[in-house]
């Protein structure tokens, strides 16, 4: 079998979704942790010269960048335990939600960089995005992928290991049982899945990492005013 390598950064939701996909498929790979904040490796710059970002999957020496592209590649090369449905229409629906969640969840971090009224506005925007996913995304399914985890679930995983600890550090709550019952049930199903649970970043370590970031943003915001 050709060698598989993954370049990632431990708290990043973008490399995390790829780790989960490889684990769901049972693909052996070598994980290479990048020192993103301080010192990107020459290999990362060589493999992703366009964005210079993780994740990069290297399969048989050939690099693939952009997490959604990587997830689709993984599903094509290792088709067992599929992440996408076989039916063309169902596949397009799965891709629609993966794209929507990918595009909408990254800006959800904005509240973490802001304070006061600006922070409140971002929190409200986040609630609207969650409302859209709650009302139009999941329906009565357990996962976006139906009974099993699919591509959109892997992308939405970010709300558990990044958005939730960010909310904890700031002192707000997003996905609660009474306001978002479907998403709340999804959080439980997804985080209790054995592959996800066994390959989850250390929650307390993420909180500590985020506290330092939050203090840094607070210093910046203090200088602004
Ligand atoms: N759209 C990209 C986003 C990846 C991304 O934002 N990676 C961040 C880490 S969370 C990164 O490598 N940042 C390094 C930099 O911006 O210089 C994907 O889905 O793969």
UniProtKB/TrEMBL annotation:
BP GO terms, sorted: glutathione metabolic process; toxin catabolic process
Keywords tagged on the record: Cytoplasm, Detoxification, Transferase
Main subcellular location of this protein, as a coarse class: cytoplasm
PROSITE patterns: GST_CTER (PS50405), GST_NTER (PS50404)
Domain GST C-terminal: 87-218
InterPro entries from the UniProt entry: Glutathione-S-Trfase_C-like (IPR010987), Glutathione-S-Trfase_C_sf (IPR036282), Glutathione_S-Trfase (IPR040079), Glutathione_S-Trfase_N (IPR004045), GST_C (IPR004046), GST_C_Tau (IPR045074), Omega/Tau-like (IPR045073), Thioredoxin-like_sf (IPR036249)
EC top class named in words: transferase
Keyword Nucleus belongs to the record: no
Gene3D superfamilies: 1.20.1050.10, Glutaredoxin
All residue ranges annotated as the GST N-terminal domain in the record: 2-82
Catalytic activity: RX + glutathione = an S-substituted glutathione + a halide anion + H(+)
Domain of life: Eukaryota
GO cellular component: cytosol
Location of the protein in the cell: Cytoplasm, Cytosol
Listed Pfam families: GST_C, GST_N
EC number of the protein: 2.5.1.18
GO MF annotation terms: glutathione transferase activity
Ranges in coiled-coil conformation: none
Entry's family note: Belongs to the GST superfamily. Tau family.
Protein's name according to its UniProt entry: glutathione transferase
